[in-house]
Amino acid sequence: MLSGILLIFLPLVLGYLIPIKKTNILEFINTQTSRLVLVILALMGLSLAGLDNLSQNLGQILLYTFTFFISISVCNLLALPWLDRLWPTPTSHVQRKLPLIKMGLESAKLVVVVALGLIVGLLLNVDLSWVEQASENILLLLLFFIGIQLRNSGMTLKQIILNKKGVIIATVILITSLLGGVIAALLLDIPINNGLAMASGFGWYSLAGILIGDGLGSIYGGAAFLNELLREILALIMIPLLINRYPNTAIGYAGATAMDFTLPVIQNCGGIRCVPIAIVSGFILSLLVPVLILFFISL
């Protein structure tokens, strides 16, 4: 585990303070961020291979995954439809073809990387004590790059504050997700702060899995990764089915991915009026993911 919460926050804050104007530099940072995520996920797989009683721990990972997924999803989906009743959002019914298969493959690629790391660790049967320190060092660099990405995402504080619906949707997701995390923690008889950390991924499965795995161990990290991945998959299924009747629900359940991965689906199925709401909601939740996870882990 990293030596202190300030050490983790420092690269994120430093990155956020850096404005970048040149497109080629931002593209380089985006590319390196994606590569670092793959490296850390592979290391996560290696760390899983180093667990004692692996088969038993895999069962615990799946138990944690489905308990948190069901608890958080139920809390989200009980609250979000009320927003559609109280404050409906107009949508467009014009739809275009989307590369859903390609999007699904992108998600599957990350699962494959973790699985490959696990397989390699099991086959090599070598000392894996170095994996934790290597993950921590790469994580610091990754957080620095993420800070730069958030600063240069094109969203200003004024734009966020003015889009009240995006802020409200993000607030509802925040509150109901944390409530779901508390419920799951009580059901699993684990510390409440661990449950709150697990509930703070909001669909950002790669970062949530990395941060929680580094702070709470491989079992929690694997469960966090799968929990948020299931959320994204369900969001991709739900958006085309619900967005015309329940747009706020579809956008909200997409969580942090509403500003990037699921945004094309939201725009295609819901129309251009849904885009600013999705971007603001997704941006706020993306910004909160590292902050909340690191805060709850430190308690």
| Total number of helices | 13
Low-confidence stretches: none
Overall domain count: 1
Give the radius of gyration. Answer: 19 Å
Assign the structural class, choosing from mainly alpha, mainly beta, alpha/beta, alpha+beta, or little secondary structure: mainly alpha
Cα shape:
globular
Strand segment count: 0
InterPro entries: LysO
Organism: Photobacterium aquimaris
Keywords: Membrane, Transmembrane, Transmembrane helix
Protein name: Lysine exporter LysO family protein
Structure description:
One of its GO terms (molecular function) is L-lysine efflux transmembrane transporter activity. With 299 residues, the chain is mostly helical. The protein is built from 13 helices and no strands. It has one domain. The chain starts with a helix and ends with a helix.
Summarize the structure.
With 299 residues, this protein is mostly helical. It is 78% helix and 0% strand.
Could you outline the blueprint of secondary structure elements for this entry?
Blueprint: H1 5-16, H2 23-49, H3 54-86, H4 100-124, H5 130-151, H6 157-162, H7 164-188, H8 192-198, H9 205-216, H10 218-242, H11 247-253, H12 263-270, H13 274-298
Helix pairs in contact: 1-5, 2-4, 2-5, 2-9, 3-7, 3-10, 3-11, 7-8, 7-11, 7-13, 8-13, 9-10, 9-13, 10-11, 12-13
Index terms:
mainly alpha; 0% strand; globular; Lysine exporter LysO family protein; transmembrane; LysO; membrane
